[in-house]
């Protein structure tokens, strides 16, 4: 692995590898992954494992596994999580630790820092963190939704050098290889743009929730943080042997030469907007002069219910997304102030209490 020179990696394993037939966990495909993790650790490379599969692992314990309500899926996750952890644990002769997360744990800055510290402490003590979304308690409002994107957020939180996403095909193809015999593997991607996303089809696995699109989304998150990202075939041992030899077995996404600052990356790719401010079309002039000059009379709408400290989106009235930022005012107060922005006393109040959003807590969004 000398060519890659990694010190810490995150590997993401999906449900189809954990419980291929929804009949409980199987070590059939996991043995080569476990061996890869062992060999990485023997080379001094720290490993974080993001493992899907709790719902698929627990499905066989329930009578009806098709078209089940969300409450049953949560119960499946609760039952399957212990089986999944036990399956991984028996493949290693070193300790592992279960870390269950929701998006709420990652989008809140204090909790995000706590997650970073926990992962770092586990690794420094030689313990393998095994991370999964907490499907038992999460809701639509709190969930990441797929472990591809979760793995990219974890890679950023773990300060990883590389993210390895296991798929059921060799990597990103120019068209769906399951449908087109002439599909060509894209071995190298220097920039993720609309043309790359256009190559992504839907999910091909009956047990997983992530398709190729979510893997590209994860690659975009990770590479913008300076993290080497690979999509590989997790069903074949050859993929892992090639990585150990410093070779690319699938699709390698090149990391940014100048990664985003850590707080900007967190704001852009991890923190979730709880509401939005719609501003006048000429807000770009304010943006160029400094966002702290944003005034209540430039706000056209205040949407959503957010509190001080929540992340919000600022967009133009034509829909163009401009920045994500930490709100210095609640949605209730901002709605009141924008309705009365013609009164000088309210403008004086805002001048005394501070800007609506601050330069130090924002991320400027690129138009795509």
Automatic annotation (TrEMBL):
* Aspartate/glutamate/uridylate kinase domain boundaries: 7-233
Q: Report the EC number(s), separated by commas if there are several.
A: 2.7.2.11
Superkingdom of the organism of origin: Bacteria
Under SUPFAM superfamilies, the record lists: Carbamate kinase-like, PUA domain-like
Catalyzed reaction equations: L-glutamate + ATP = L-glutamyl 5-phosphate + ADP
State the InterPro entries in the record: AceGlu_kinase-like_sf, Asp/Glu/Uridylate_kinase, G5K_ProB, Glu/AcGlu_kinase, Glu_5kinase, Glu_5kinase/COase_Synthase, Glutamate_5-kinase_CS, PUA-like_sf
Q: Where does substrate bind?
A: 52, 135, 147
Xref: Pfam families: AA_kinase (PF00696)
User: In which broad location class does this protein mainly occur, judging by the first location in its UniProt entry?
Assistant: cytoplasm
Q: In which pathway does it act?
A: Amino-acid biosynthesis; L-proline biosynthesis; L-glutamate 5-semialdehyde from L-glutamate: step 1/2
Among HAMAP family, the record links this protein to: ProB
UniProt keyword annotations, A-Z:
Amino-acid biosynthesis, ATP-binding, Cytoplasm, Kinase, Nucleotide-binding, Proline biosynthesis, Transferase
Cited function: Catalyzes the transfer of a phosphate group to glutamate to form L-glutamate 5-phosphate.
Q: Does the keyword Protein transport apply?
A: no
Please give the PROSITE patterns that the UniProt record associates with this protein: GLUTAMATE_5_KINASE, PUA
**Which class of enzymes does this protein belong to?**
transferase
Q: What is this protein called?
A: Glutamate 5-kinase
Homology family: Belongs to the glutamate 5-kinase family.
Subcellular location(s): the record lists: Cytoplasm
* Sites where the protein binds ATP: 12, 167-168, 209-215
Sample GO molecular function, one term: glutamate 5-kinase activity
């Amino acid at each position: 692995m000398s060519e890659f020179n990694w010190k810490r990696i995150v590997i993401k394993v999906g449900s189809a590898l954990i419980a291929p037939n929804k009949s409980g966990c199987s070590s059939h495909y996991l043995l080569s992954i476990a061996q890869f993790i062992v060999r990485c650790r023997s080379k001094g490379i720290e490993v974080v494992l993001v493992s899907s599969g709790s719902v698929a692992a627990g499905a066989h314990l329930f009578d009806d596994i098709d078209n089940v309500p969300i409450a049953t899926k949560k119960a499946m996750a609760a039952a399957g999580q212990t089986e999944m952890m036990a399956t991984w644990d028996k493949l290693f002769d070193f300790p592992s630790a279960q870390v269950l997360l929701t998006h709420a744990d990652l989008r809140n800055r204090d909790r995000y820092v706590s997650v970073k510290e926990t992962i770092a402490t586990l690794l420094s003590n030689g313990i393998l963190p095994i991370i999964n979304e907490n499907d038992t308690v999460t809701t639509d409002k709190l969930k990441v939704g797929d472990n591809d994107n979760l793995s990219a957020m974890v890679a950023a939180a773990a300060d990883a050098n590389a993210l390895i996403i296991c798929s059921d095909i060799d990597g990103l193809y120019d068209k769906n290889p399951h449908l087109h015999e002439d599909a060509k593997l894209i071995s190298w991607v220097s920039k993720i743009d609309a043309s790359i996303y256009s190559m992504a089809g839907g999910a091909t696995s009956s047990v997983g929730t992530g398709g190729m699109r979510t893997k590209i989304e994860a690659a975009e998150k990770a590479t913008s943080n300076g993290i080497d990202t690979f999509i590989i075939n997790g069903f074949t041992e050859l993929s892992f042997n090639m990585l150990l030899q410093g070779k690319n077995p699938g699709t390698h996404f090149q990391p940014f030469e100048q990664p985003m600052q850590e707080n900007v990356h967190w704001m852009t790719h991890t923190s979730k907007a709880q509401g939005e401010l719609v501003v006048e079309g000429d807000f770009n002039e304010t943006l160029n002069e400094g966002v702290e000059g944003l005034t209540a009379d430039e706000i056209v709408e205040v949407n959503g219910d957010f509190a001080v400290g929540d992340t919000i989106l600022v967009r133009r009235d034509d829909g163009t997304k401009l920045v994500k930022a930490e709100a210095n005012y609640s949605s209730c107060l901002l709605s009141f102030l924008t309705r009365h922005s013609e009164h000088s006393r309210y403008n004086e109040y805002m001048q005394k209490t501070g800007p609506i959003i601050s330069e130090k807590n924002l991320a400027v969004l690129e138009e795509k």
